[in-house]
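Final report, closing paragraph on structural work. Over the funding period we assembled a curated collection of sequence-structure pairs, and we close with a single example.
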Amino acid sequence: MHFFIFVYSLFSVELRYFFPAIIIFSLIGVLIIQPLTRIIEVKEDKKFITIIFVVLTILPILSNFFIIRYALSKRKDIDKHIENFQIKDPYLYLIAGLEAIDKLDRKQALKYFNSFASSNAYIGKNQIEETLKIMKGEDLKIDDSSLMLLNNHIIKVAKMIQNKDLTKAEKYVNEKWKEISRSYLRLPRTYYERKLNTEISKQIKKTPWDQNIFILLSEDLSECEKICKEFNQIIRKQGSEDIFNCNYKEEIKFRKISKYCKIKKYPDLSNELTEILELENKDLTKAKEKILSLINKYPLYYKFYTEAGNISLLLKDYKSSEEYFKKSLEICPYAEYSYHGLLYIYKEKNNHKELKKIKNKMKEFQLIN
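Its predicted structure, as stored:
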C-alpha cells in the first residue's frame, strides 16, 4: 500500500498527496521498528533479523529521500507532464487547454481541447465540443445546461464580430445577457463544476483563462484585440462596468520581461526611477550622477541603464548613451525603449547598417512586425 502511495505521489499532478506520503512512510518506519525490538529479544537468528531490518527500515528511508529529491518544478508544467507520462485522465487535457489560453497560446489550447473532446470524459465534454464547432463557424444553439468552462455565448458573439456582423452580435448579447454575464463575471460555480474532481475544480477555478478567450479566434493577436474591443463596446451598452483586457501584445511583452529581465533579489525600484525622471526636468547633470550611483548599487536593473542612456542622449553624449542602451539590452533583450534610443542615435549618425541590425533584433523579439 505504501509503495502505491509513493508511486502515485511521484507521478500524479495532485500535489496534495506529496508530503502526506512522506509522513506515511515515516510512520510506517516507526511503527514497524518498535515491534522489531521485541523480535530481536526472542529471535536468535541474527541473519533473519538483519534482513527484516534492512527491508522494512532502510527501504522506506530511501523512498523518503527520493520523494524529497524529486524536483517540484517538474510537476508544475502540465505540458511536460502530459508529454512525459501520457496520463490518461482526460481532465488533464482540459486543464492544460485552459492554462494555454491563460498563456495566450492559441495553438496549444486548441490542441488540448481537441484531445479532451475526443476523450471518454463525461462532464464538460459537450461544452468543449460546442466551442470547437463555433470556432469552425457552425451556427448552433448553445446548451445552457452544459458546464460553463468557456462561455460559448461570448465565443459565438466574438465569431459574429469577426465576420463583421456587429448588428447580429449586439442583438445576441441583448437576448443572452444573463447567460453571458453569468460566466463572464465568474459567479459561484455551477452544479456541474461542483461535480468535477475536487483537484480539477480548484485548478479550473484559479486559472484566469476567461480574460483571454478572444485569442481562440485568430493567430493574429491584432485581430483578437480588435474583436475584444468591439465586444467591450457592446457590453458597455448593457451597463457593464467590467470589461475585458484586450492588450494581448502588451501582456505578452510584460510576461517576457517579468520572466527574463526581473532580478528577484532586488526590491521594487519604481520609486527610485520616478525620482530620477523628476530630477531630469530640473538638473540633467545631477540626474546622471544619481542614476550612476543607482547602477553601482543595482548593476543588473536594466531600466537604470535605459534611463542613463536617455539622460546621456539629452546631454548630447551619444557615445555614452549608446553604451548604456546596449548594456540595458544585454541584461534584458525585451527593453523596448533601449531599442528606440539606439534607433534615434543611428538615425542621427546616418548609420543604416546598424539601423537595420536593431530593427531585425526588434523583429526577433517580436517588438515590431
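The mean pLDDT is 76. Residues 149 and 203 are 12 Å apart (CA to CA). We thank the funder for supporting this effort.
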